[in-house]
Amino acid sequence: MPCFLRVRLGPGRVWDSDLGVCDFEYGSSDPLTQGLPEWELQPLPNYYVVKSHPAVITCRATPAIRISFRCAGRQVPAKSQTNREMVDSRTRRKTLESTIQVTKEEVSDYFGSEGFVCECFAYNNVQGSSTPGTVKSKKGLVEVANLKKRFRRVPLAVRVKENVQTEMVCLPPEGKPRPTVSH
């Protein structure tokens, strides 16, 4: 279980081991911006990475003062996240969107039994509570994409007259994600 350290620096300012210096300990005290976060965007069930293309995982929650990620059972450092904050001018509710990238090396170096699973945690003020309320997202599995070189059934050569359609039957090679043949 990750451990977080929070130190009060003075009125309205804290230092958080995950976030760094924050201007407000738990965000706004405005009741309109309080309440448990609701997910607008959660991790997809499956992501695939290749050498030069990391998986991009994004979570978005409203209202939220913070989003954190846990991948392969470990807390992802806040400095690895890209955050975007949006405030609805009418309701003053804060939506927070946070994104991480997972590389092929990270997935390849992990040997856990569940696979390389990532999930998000959103935090926000809850009226009457001295600590933020937290909600957990669905899990997303990150796997290394692969494709075998040989077709399971190679299309046979056929002679075709010009401007005549023909169908070539084949079975694609095995792979992850499962490859499909398009027409």
UniProtKB/TrEMBL annotation:
**Annotated organism of origin:** Elysia marginata
Q: Does the keyword Disulfide bond apply?
A: yes
Organism's domain of life? Eukaryota
Q: What is the lineage of its organism?
A: Eukaryota, Metazoa, Spiralia, Lophotrochozoa, Mollusca
Tell me which InterPro entries the record gives: Ig-like_fold (IPR013783), UNC5A-D-like_N (IPR057755)
The name this protein goes by in its record? Netrin receptor unc-5
Pfam families given in the database record: Unc5_NetrinR_N
Question: Where, per UniProt, does this protein localize?
Answer: Membrane
Q: How does it sit in the membrane?
A: Single-pass type I membrane protein
Q: Which UniProt keywords apply?
A: Disulfide bond, Glycoprotein, Immunoglobulin domain, Membrane, Receptor
Principal location: membrane
Ranges of residues in domain Netrin receptor UNC5A-D-like N-terminal = 36-139
